[in-house]
Amino acid sequence: MRRKKLLVASLVVIVMVSLAACLPNIFKLTIKINGQGSVTPKSGSRFVKNAVVKLQPTPENDDWCFAYWGGSNSSEIDEWNRILMDGNKSVTANFVKSYVDFSNLVVNTVYHVGDVFTDSAVGINFESFTSLDYQIIESGCAKIDHYQSAGGQGQDLFLNNICANFDFVHGLYRLTFLYGEYGGNVNLGINNGHFYNIENISELDGLIVDDILITVTEYGNGQGRMTLNGTVGNFVIGGQELWIDSVKFDM
Ligand SMILES: [Ca+2]
Ligand SMILES: [Ca+2]
After folding, report:
1. Which secondary-structure segment (H or E) carries 5?
2. Are 107 and 206 contained in the same domain?
3. Which backbone phi and psi does 4 adopt, to 5 degrees?
4. 183 located within any domain
5. Distance, CA 24 to ligand 1 centroid (Å)?
6. For residue range 64-90, what is the model confidence (pLDDT) as tens digits?
7. Is residue 69 within 8 Å of residue 222, measured between CB atoms?
8. Is 173 helix (H, G, I), strand (E, B) or coil?
């Protein structure tokens, strides 16, 4: 009798172990959000072992864009935003403001060569300016202005014999900004290596550099819009009496 009980108990254990082996493992996907936007599937969703899950980040509105993945499992996300659920996974979707409008800065703040500020997760470094006869000018300055000389709203950035270097760490595929050009020459640099030193911004209209198409639309009275369509990692603009504003980008 005792032996029979033991046999039944052993069988029960064997059946339970076998069942556990047959049941698929279920793993949880945790998603944190920085900035304004959402991701599908939603955080806390569970998936069977080895499911390949496509993550879809969606910015809250046109003022935000998805920049990059973070979190402990972010390195496992492939270029199509897919992740393999071979364990519990945790990722962070980072959304950033999709424009720099200089509105968070103090009017009349002056920057010199070597100064840096950050806006919308974009680092803006000030660098030397090159004159039309290729003299390097280190003594220029930039200022946060409020006369809308670039044709935008609120504050803009005045570049006076200085260049502003916009560093887009995570890359972007479209960049557009407003400008007001009231004298002197202009420096333009793209993706660390392509440099243009020209009399007027409009000369760049139609230029293709590094597979980036530049278009310039003039609005009259020195004002206009420049758009770069293509993969832009870094962008330098400088002038002598140049104002820029509403720097909008799509990542
Ligand atoms: Ca502005
Ligand atoms: Ca000019």
Report:
1. helix 2-22
2. yes
3. -65, -45
4. yes
5. 55
6. 989 899 999 999 999 999 999 999 999
7. no
8. strand
Closest-approaching ligand to the CA atom of 238: 2
Centre of ligand 2 from the C-alpha of residue 232, in Å: 24
CA of 125 to the centre of ligand 1 (A): 18
The CATH number assigned to the domain holding 185 equals 2.60.120
Which residue reads 């911004």 in tokens?
A: 201
Q: Please give the residue range of the domain that contains residue 26.
A: 22-97
d(CA 91, CA 31): 5
pLDDT at 21: 52
Distance CA 148, CA 180 (A): 9
Residue-wise DSSP of 205-223: TT-EETTEEEEEEEEETTE
pLDDT tens-digit readout, 200-212: 999 999 999 989 9
Same-domain pairing of 26 and 109: no
| Distance in Å, CA 204 to ligand 2 centroid | 12
pLDDT tens digits, one per residue of 126-154: 999 999 999 999 999 999 999 999 999 99
What pLDDT score was predicted for residue 10?
A: 66
CA distance 235 to 210: 12
Residue ranges of the chain with per-residue pLDDT less than 70: 1-4, 6-24
- pTM exceeds 0.90 for this model: no
Tell me, yes or no, whether 50 and 109 share the same domain: no
Report how far ligand 1's centroid is from the alpha carbon of 173 (Å). 22
The torsion angles phi and psi of 181, rounded to 5 degrees, stand at -115, 115
Helix H or strand E encompassing 13? helix 2-22
Q: Find the ligand nearest to 241 CA.
A: 2
